[in-house]
Automatic annotation (TrEMBL):
<dbReference type="InterPro" id="IPR044150">
    <property type="entry name" value="HDAC_classIV"/>
</dbReference>
<feature type="domain" description="Histone deacetylase">
    <location>
        <begin position="18"/>
        <end position="289"/>
    </location>
</feature>
<dbReference type="InterPro" id="IPR037138">
    <property type="entry name" value="His_deacetylse_dom_sf"/>
</dbReference>
<dbReference type="Pfam" id="PF00850">
    <property type="entry name" value="Hist_deacetyl"/>
</dbReference>
<dbReference type="InterPro" id="IPR023696">
    <property type="entry name" value="Ureohydrolase_dom_sf"/>
</dbReference>
<dbReference type="InterPro" id="IPR000286">
    <property type="entry name" value="HDACs"/>
</dbReference>
<dbReference type="GO" id="GO:0016787">
    <property type="term" value="F:hydrolase activity"/>
</dbReference>
<dbReference type="GO" id="GO:0040029">
    <property type="term" value="P:epigenetic regulation of gene expression"/>
</dbReference>
<dbReference type="InterPro" id="IPR023801">
    <property type="entry name" value="His_deacetylse_dom"/>
</dbReference>
<protein>
    <submittedName>
        <fullName>Histone deacetylase</fullName>
    </submittedName>
</protein>
<dbReference type="GO" id="GO:0004407">
    <property type="term" value="F:histone deacetylase activity"/>
</dbReference>
<keyword id="KW-0378">Hydrolase</keyword>
<comment type="similarity">
    <text>Belongs to the histone deacetylase family.</text>
</comment>
Length: 300
């Protein structure tokens, strides 16, 4: 069964006009239920994660400032969100969503978090709509519990997974792979284990060729026993921030390639949704929905 993390707190309201589309976190499950891709039993609501698992990834001084609402105005601006206790609570629920999704992936082969993919959160700070790093927290959880020994992070969001790269820069058990827009945010890139920087305006054929060039070889080389997939849909040609020109069909084919590789190699995969900033919320929801449709098609 495809198990999917979702909570009402995912759609935490933001000030009117804020460019981060929180409404997608309600619209996406509604669409998947309406069309019959998922049933209510597919969803689970994660509780907040325990502090100890946050502190396996993030510095205690940063976590204390964040949970006690003591970030400086400059630190708050860097996150892109107006800080509130509700926002921090949302974040710790999302973190456990990805941890629990990873555990379900070990059982069923694949699992999803409707939110997550917060790859701009560093050990000691938040950036770019990310306060804590869900994939990093979940990867460290699996390693600590000895549920995985070699983890591959496949980050296909249009923005480099700079926080994830920093967190795992000295951890041999985790290989970070980021395929992203070369000239997009962040302007200063960290060093992943493998970075593939794409030119503005890249279209489906060249994008998918780059993925085919690198991901199968990485799986053969690294032989991971678990994969985390950051499946951001800001690669779309409709995205306001993305600067790439991948079609909806191309984005769907990207997801197919990743999930089929995981299935073929019998590697459990947990997917987090990541970014998506198209003008029409329907484009964002449709692109994210494809990831779930493909998981059902390929695995179940």
């Amino acid at each position: 069964m495809l198990k999917v993390a979702w909570s009402p707190v995912y759609a935490h309201p933001l000030p009117e006009g804020h460019r981060f589309p929180m409404e997608k976190y309600n619209l996406l499950p509604e669409q998947l239920l309406y069309e019959g891709t998922l049933q209510q039993e597919n969803f689970f609501e994660p509780p907040p994660i325990e502090d100890q698992y946050i502190l396996n990834t993030h510095e205690s001084t940063y976590w204390d400032k964040l949970r006690n609402q003591q970030l400086t105005p400059a630190e708050i601006r860097k996150t892109g969100f107006p800080l509130s206790p509700q926002l921090v609570f949302r974040e710790v629920v999302i973190m456990n969503g990805t941890v629990q999704a990873a555990l379900f992936a070990l059982e069923y082969g694949v699992s999803m978090n409707i939110a997550g993919g917060t790859h701009h959160a560093f050990t000691n700070r938040g950036e770019g709509f990310c306060l804590l790093n869900d994939i990093a927290i979940a990867a460290n959880y699996l390693l600590e519990k000895k549920l995985a020994a070699r983890i591959l992070i496949v980050d296909l969001d249009v923005h480099q997974g700079n926080g994830t790269a920093q967190i795992f820069q000295d951890k041999a058990e985790v290989f970070t792979f980021s395929m992203h827009g070369a000239s997009n945010y962040p302007m200063h890139k960290e060093i992943s284990d493998l970075d593939v920087a794409l030119p503005d305006g890249i279209t489906d054929a060249a994008y998918l060729k780059a993925l085919d060039t690198h991901l199968p070889a990485l799986i053969e080389q690294e032989v991971p026993d678990f994969i985390f997939y950051q499946s951001g849909v800001d690669i779309l040609n409709t995205d306001k921030l993305g600067r790439l020109s991948v079609s909806l069909a191309g984005c769907r084919e990207r997801d197919r390639k990743v999930l089929e590789l995981c299935k073929r190699h019998h590697i459990p995969v947990a997917a987090s949704m990541g970014g998506g900033y198209s003008e029409r919320i329907a484009d964002i929801v449709e692109a994210h929905a494809n990831t779930f449709r493909l998981a059902q098609e390929i695995y179940f």
